[in-house]
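PROTEIN–LIGAND DATA SHEET

This sheet pairs a single protein chain with one bound small molecule, pyridoxal-5'-phosphate, given as SMILES. Inputs appear in the order they were entered. The predicted three-dimensional arrangement of chain and ligand is reported afterwards as a C-alpha cell string under its own label.
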Amino acid sequence: MRINTHYQDLEDSYLFSTIAKKVAQQSAEHPEQKIIRLGIGDVTLPLCPAVTDALHAAVDEMGNKETFHGYGPEQGYDFLREGIRGYYAQKGVALEAGEVFISDGAKSDLGNILDLFDRDNIVLVPDPVYPVYVDTNVMAGRKILYCDATEQNGFLPPPPQEVEADIIYLCSPNNPTGAAYNREQLGAWVAYAKANGAVILYDAAYEAFI
Ligand SMILES: Cc1ncc(COP(=O)(O)O)c(C=O)c1O
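PREDICTION REPORTED AS:
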C-alpha cells in the first residue's frame, strides 16, 4: 500500500491559518489600522421558518411507520429537481430534468467532480478565491496556475491568453472579493475555454446577491 503523497503538499497551502497569523502580526504591529477580513467567514443569521418547518416535517415523516419512505432517489427528489428547473426557467434558462442533480453540497461536489479528469490537466484558478478549488487539486497532484484579481482588472481577471489551461474555475460573484462578471466578460472566458478544449467549473454560490 502506498499513500497519496500529494496530501503532504496541503500543509503549505493551509490558507486560513496563514491568514490568521498574518492578521495577528499586522494588528500587533499596527493597532491603529482597520483590517478588512477576507478570510474564512461564518453565517450570521438563523435559518428562516420555511426551512426549519420543512426540516422538522421531513424528520417527522421519516420517523413514522406510516410515512417513512426509505432512501430517496439517487439523483434527488423529483419535486426538488422540478423546483430548481422552475427557478432557472424564471431566468430564461431551459433545463432538462436530467441536467439537475441534488448532491450534499457544492464543497463535496468540487472534490468529487475531479474524479472525471486526468491528473495531467492544468488547472487555472483566480486569486484570491474560495480555497477549496485549490486544495482539491493539490490533493490530486495537479498543476495549478493562478490569474490575479487586481484593482486594475476590477478584481475580475480576464482569460490569460499566454496560458493554456484545461480546467478553469470561475466564482462569480467571487468569494471573497464579491466582484461579479458581466455577460460579455463571461463570454470571453467561454471563448477561451472553447479555443483550449477546456472545461469551466462555474461556482455561482452567491448569485442571489447580484
Ligand atoms: C464560493 C463557494 N462555493 C461553495 C461553497 C460551499 O457550498 P456548500 O455549502 O454547498 O458545500 C462555499 C461556502 O463557503 C463558497 O463560498
